[in-house]
Amino acid sequence: MIRILLIEDDETISFGITAALKRKGYMCTACSTVKAGKQAVSDEFQLILLDLNLPDGSGYDFCRWVKERFKTPIIFLTVRDDVRDITKGLDMGADDYVTKPFHIEVLESRMKAVLRRVPEEKQNLLSCGDICLDKDKMQVSINGDEVELTALEYRLLCVLLENKGRTLPRNLILDKLWDAEGNFVNDNTLTVTVKRLRKKLSGTELIVTIRGIGYRMEDKA
């Protein structure tokens, strides 16, 4: 599921965009200030929708701050349609510029165009809730804070995230966890590893036990 971070201080516009994108299958997190946006942003988001005029700062400043730390694409949403404003936003790294008012279908079309240009390495980022797994770096983080996992815990989390929303029988998980050296991972080891993984992920409820069958990783509403 594509995760969107929306930073918009107008409650009506924010609610409308969030509701419309959720109906279309996106996962949208909304913030109303620069401060809240900085606290929320992380590698788990595939796209940022950013208003220019915010109560505690400029969208330009937030865009610059994000581009210094993340590779997440940004689309400006604003009533300011002066060519100098548009040029300034694009020059500092914004990926598109949509002026208000706009139709949600137009916004989604522009979003899809930007997402098609996202580098392939972004596809190696797996996420669920606040958890993000970077397959290239072999790193796991919660809200941007790195979590240290053992090799077995990492492989288990990777299997669950790659099959997010799907119930995985225990025997299927055990087959996938059989390591390259042929060391057998037994049923008890799986139970203990799930318990330890949950603890390291702050007791997350995102790993759901399906009694008598196995486990499923799923986003909570």
Automatic annotation (TrEMBL):
Record's Gene3D superfamilies? Answer: 3.40.50.2300, 6.10.250.690, Winged helix-like DNA-binding domain superfamily/Winged helix DNA-binding domain
**Domain Response regulatory residue range list:** 3-115
Q: Which organism is it from?
A: Faecalicatena orotica
Q: Which SUPFAM superfamilies match?
A: C-terminal effector domain of the bipartite response regulators, CheY-like
Q: Which GO terms describe its cellular component?
A: cytosol; protein-DNA complex
Question: What protein does this entry describe?
Answer: Stage 0 sporulation protein A homolog
Q: Which GO terms describe its molecular function?
A: phosphorelay response regulator activity; transcription cis-regulatory region binding
Please state every residue range assigned to the domain named OmpR/PhoB-type: 123-219
Keywords of this entry:
DNA-binding, Phosphoprotein, Transcription, Transcription regulation
